[in-house]
Amino acid sequence: MDTLALEAKGAKSDAVTGPVTPARKPKPAKKAKKAVFFEVEILDGKTKEKLLLLDKVEPNATIAEIKSMFHKSHPQWYPARQSLRLDPKGKCLKDEDILQQLPVGTTATFYFRDLGAQITWVTVFLTEYVGPLLIYLMFYFRVPFIYAPKYDFTTSKHWVVHLACMCHSFHYVKRLLETLFIHRFSHGTMPLRNIWQNCAYYWGFAAWMAYYINHPLYTPPIYGEQQVKTALVIFLLCQIGNFSIHVALRNLRPPGSKTRKIPYPTRNPFTWIFLLVSCPNYTYEVGAWLGFTVMTQCLPVAFFTAVGFIQMTVWARGKHRSYLKEFRDYPSIRSPILPFLL
Predict the structure, then answer these.
(1) How many Å from the N-terminal Cα to the C-terminal Cα in the chain?
(2) N or C: which end of the chain has fewer CB within 10 A?
């Protein structure tokens, strides 16, 4: 057998006896996951009438987004006046609540309630605070039809009356500026129907106080200059403290956010009261009006201070409970409004 034949035979033998790698089977293509959408049904909270059915709603849709979808079908109900609930008598869902995190199936039923016409909180505060500022000045300048005609546009001979006007005006100008440049609101709007009672409270008390303080027969405090100066110091310190707390609270919340954090003292000494009180802005507010009461020695001012203290105590207790419920590490030593007392 010649050499070429042997080489050919050897090559064929090697090809047969060598290791054989089995051919790999192609992997089956992965099936695309089927997208899961929610179906949202919105019923009238009172009549249970179906108002809207939304299909193919994204699982991560927020209540705010659902309100916007509802508004497109019912333009008369803009998002701010909508209240959506899981139960007709249940709590109103928050705008930031996410659909898939709610205790509902892929078909969610919400109950709608109309909150009525709404007004922004900025507008509410501006309206509440402009009124007392202007009303007080009308009494201070003794415009006609308030006192006897002979006193029209006259001025008081008591310097404490002029000081009281400056303090009252300063307080409300400060509030107006804080509303425009300091405060960040967790809720955007308030029912329009509530503004009348808010304005009646502020405007009515301002007129009542101003009438007696600026009255031609007004008599200064019995302890004279020393009483007025001491009260003025209290008033000014509390105004500075109140402003300091508002700035500290503002810095806790980034613009456009509703995040809540535990407020702590800063380098500003007026914020150190946070060590003992949950709502020191109310503490300073009451202190300022207490100083104004001592300064003017006027009964309507004392009554306004007492009513305000009661209302602010209610608000402070509510916020204090919210802090305790939301934050497990919230300082237990703090009181709502008065250290160790209330």
Answers:
(1) 117
(2) N
What are the pLDDT digits (tens) for 37-68? 889 999 999 999 999 999 889 989 999 999 99
Q: What 3-state DSSP class applies to 257?
A: coil
| Contact yes or no for 160/235 (Cβ under 8 A) | no
Residues 257, 3: Cα–Cα separation, whole Å: 90
The torsion region of residue 19 among left (phi > 0), alpha (psi -120 to 50) and beta comes to: beta
The model's pLDDT over 268-326, given as tens digits with 9 standing for 90+, comes to: 999 999 999 999 999 999 999 999 999 999 999 999 999 999 999 999 999 999 999 99
CB contact at 8 A, 33 and 51: no
The dihedral through the CA atoms of 250, 81, 103, 32 has a sign that is negative
Q: 66: how many CB neighbours lie within 10 A of its CB?
A: 25
113 burial via Cβ count (<10 Å: 0-12, 13-18, 19+): middle
Distance between CA atoms of 221 and 108, rounded to whole angstroms?
66
Distance from C-alpha of 297 to C-alpha of 231, rounded to nearest angstrom = 10
Helix (H, G, I), strand (E, B) or coil at 278: coil
- AA identity, residue 252: L
Compute CA distances 32 → 12, 37, 133, whole Å.
48, 15, 66
Alpha-carbon distances, residue 9 vs 5, 16, 17, 297 (angstroms):
6, 11, 12, 126
How would residue 187 be classed by pLDDT, with cut points 50, 70 and 90? confident
Q: How crowded is residue 242: how many other Cβ atoms within 10 Å of its Cβ? A: 24
Report the relative pairing of strands 189-191 and 118-120 from DSSP bridges: antiparallel
Query: Quick one: tokens of 250?
Result: 């503002």
